[in-house]
Every structure is written in C-alpha cells, then in structure tokens.
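Writing this down once: the sequence line spells out the residues, with the fold written below as integer tokens. I am pasting one below:
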Amino acid sequence: MTGDAMDTILAQWARERPDLDCAPMGVIGRISQLQREVFLAQRATFARHDLDAPSFDVLAALRRAGAPYQLTPTALMRTALVTSGAITQRLDRLEERGLITRGRSESDGRAVVVTLTDAGRAALDAALPDHLETEHGMLTGLTAAEQAQLADLLRRFLVSLGRTPPEA
C-alpha cells in the first residue's frame, strides 16, 4: 500500500517521541487533509453554478423539505449548525438573488418561513448532479463496500462526539 504524508509524520514522531502514542494523529490528520480536499472540490463545483457551500446547503435543505419547500429560519439554522446571525446573512444573500423568499406562515402569522423560489429550485436542481459527480469522483479509490464501511465508521465517530440530528 502506498503511504501518505501522515505516515511520514507518524514515523518522525515515533522516532523523536517513542514515549507518546501518536496514532490519533493518523486519524485526525487525515480527516483534516480530507476536509481541505472536499472543501476545494466543492468550492469549484458550486462556483460553476454561481453558488457557494453555505448557499447550496440552504437551498438543499429547503428542497429536501418537500413541497411547498418551506422551513423556518430556526429549522434552517439547526440543519446548518450555524448561529442565527450566520443564517440571516445566508438568507439575505439568497433573497437578494431571488432564490428564496421570506414571509409569514399561513398557519401561524407570527412565524417567518423561508420558501424556495422556482429560480432557487432550478439553481439547486442544476447544481446537485454536478455536486454528486464531484463526490463520486472523490471516492473512486474506494470500493462500494469500503465506502459503506467508511461512512459507518465516520457516523459512529460523529455520534460518539455527540453529533446527532437536532430535535425536530
């Protein structure tokens, strides 16, 4: 098996500090490197569709909600795991572009709802296949079984850190 930069780093630490168990660096360091690779690949993909990752996340959350493609800002904030200020900035930018609207809920006139516009749905639906192609391309070095195993391990890791779905 071909080694990577983390193998070199771990070998150096083993030589310099044999008294320490540096094995966690092998996992966390590789996750950090993968995070950067994913970020760069997604940024390039989304840019081809005049989007960025935060915009894509909001549009995707609204699209996944199903017709009428509406969520409250609080629900979007929970989905994106960001602050209310961050979600407001995202919504402001998307509304300026005509990809979402904000209005009062028909069922509760006090509540604000964010609605995916036809233009927003078209933008998301155009970007999604390209996004998935990018992700498929990044995973070509792993078999389907390895991808499933990695997804399971990462899920278990995230759950162990308390990263579970927010309450509805």
